[in-house]
């Protein structure tokens, strides 16, 4: 089992940037596909970015494509989400997840979840 802890959330003005991190412990991160979900108040939790075990493949929701970048450093057991050109609609709790090691064509399914980190974008 892997434990995930997010950090780096906070308050940022619209148009600004923020990078959130996810540190893993318990098992090597390299065996997992990784993903970031977010949940805004009153809305469902949605997958916004995911990355393959090696980092060679990434996928994004349309709402963040071109603005957010997911990356990973398996040597540091850490996954990142770089968020640029932030808008108020990006305000949400962001969750780091680890999923099964599957072929990239298989839809991402989260197995393990972090506790979440709040990102608030002011207008």
| Beta-strand residue fraction | over 45%
The total beta strand count reads 11
Output the radius of gyration. Answer: 13 Å
Low-confidence stretches: none
Question: What is the H-and-E element order?
Answer: EEEEEEEEEEE
The biggest sheet, with number of strands, parallel, antiparallel or mixed sense and barrel status, is:
7 strands, mixed
Give the helix level as a range of percent: under 10%
What is the typical, i.e. mean, pLDDT? Answer: 96
Shape assignment: globular
Please characterize this protein's 3D structure:
The chain is mostly beta strands and 123 residues long. Helix content is 0%, strand content 51%. It contains no helices and eleven strands. Strands 2, 4, 5, 6, 9, 10 and 11 form a seven-stranded mixed beta sheet that branches. The chain has a four-stranded antiparallel beta sheet with strand order 1-3-8-7, with no helix packed on it. β5 (46-51) and β6 form a beta hairpin. It starts with a strand and ends with a strand.
What tags apply to this protein structure?
11 strands, 123 residues, four-stranded antiparallel sheet, mainly beta, globular
């Amino acid at each position: 089992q892997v434990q995930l802890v997010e950090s780096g959330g906070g308050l940022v003005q619209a148009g600004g940037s923020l990078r959130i991190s996810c540190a893993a412990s318990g098992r090597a991160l390299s065996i997992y596909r990784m993903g970031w979900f977010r949940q805004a108040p009153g809305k469902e939790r949605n997958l916004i970015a995911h990355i393959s075990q090696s980092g060679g493949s990434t996928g994004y929701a349309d709402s963040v494509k071109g603005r957010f970048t997911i990356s990973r450093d398996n040597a540091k057991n850490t996954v990142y989400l770089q968020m640029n050109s932030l808008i108020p609609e990006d305000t949400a709790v962001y969750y780091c997840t680890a999923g099964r090691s599957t072929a990239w064509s298989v839809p991402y399914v989260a197995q393990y979840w972090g506790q979440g980190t709040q990102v608030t974008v002011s207008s």
